[in-house]
Write a structure and sequence with these properties.
mainly alpha, globular, 262 residues, single chain
């Protein structure tokens, strides 16, 4: 118990550093950009427009409020991929600082996932523009959305901790993970209806794809004005808890050896 109390105290001790790292990442992303933070809204809108044109007209997916269906899935998946891809290099990319002074190593991974979360919050502006344009009804159930985002954030943080620790010892993980996320995108119902797939594939996605839990919770609130079912809600909570536990365990177990390999 004392170990965890010490870790919590250490976190609060270095919270200013975390804020500085997050701020730096956000500023670097839009440095020398004329429109700056507006790209957080414009970029998902442009991508959504292209994908709506392709999938609703060329492939003719018959989904009511397809732009809303698409941007919800797109925003959740993009946050996950952006945060975890940045997290991979969070330790090796700060090797110089880690060699000079003591800093809790998880701060760097946490900052990458958190800065991506800030970008996600910016992109919610684009999402709500689409909601208004598509005449989506806003209800009090929208207050549940932050709970969904917390689940997604914790799941991404857990995966990010695992990847950042693994990448220190096995640099090929970046290429493996790149291929994995591409495959993951296609087995996640982002731009197509799940019902179009065979029953056995649907079962696998519904039970073994964590991102399905978060996207479906979000879509249920927005498109159906319904709270998520207990299965989807518990599935999301269990997935985020497991990912955070496994990622933290692997990271803590090997963190003292990072300095030997970076």
């Amino acid at each position: 118990m004392k170990i965890w109390i010490d870790r919590i105290n250490a976190f609060f001790k270095y919270r200013d550093l975390l804020i500085q790292l997050v701020t730096r990442d956000i500023k670097l992303k839009y440095r020398r950009s004329f429109l700056g933070y507006l790209w957080s809204i414009l970029n998902p809108l442009m991508i959504m427009g292209i994908m709506v044109l392709v999938f609703s007209n060329m492939f003719r997916f018959n989904i009511e409020n397809y732009p809303v269906y698409l941007i919800v899935g797109q925003s959740c998946f993009n946050f996950f991929t952006e945060s975890t891809n940045q997290a991979i290099w969070s330790i090796t990319g700060n090797a110089a600082l880690l060699k000079k002074t003591y800093v809790p190593k998880y701060i760097f991974t946490l900052s990458k996932v958190t800065s991506s979360c800030v970008n996600l919050l910016f992109s919610l502006g684009a999402m709500f523009i689409v909601f208004i344009f598509c005449e989506v009804t806003f209800t009090l159930k929208y207050l549940f959305i932050p709970i969904i985002l917390v689940q997604l954030y914790l799941f991404s943080l857990g995966v990010g901790l695992f990847l950042s620790a693994t990448n220190v010892f096995f640099r090929d993980i970046q290429y493996i993970y790149g291929a994995l996320t591409t495959a993951w995108m296609y087995v996640t119902p982002i731009f197509y209806p799940l019902e179009q797939l065979p029953d056995n594939i649907q079962w696998i996605i519904k039970h073994l794809n964590p991102l399905y839990f978060y996207i479906e919770q979000f879509r249920g609130i927005v498109l159906n004005n319904q709270f998520p079912t207990m299965f989807i809600l518990y599935g999301g909570i269990v997935a985020s808890t497991l990912a955070l536990f496994i990622g933290s365990y692997i990271f803590i177990k090997h963190k003292d050896n990072f300095i030997l390999y970076i």
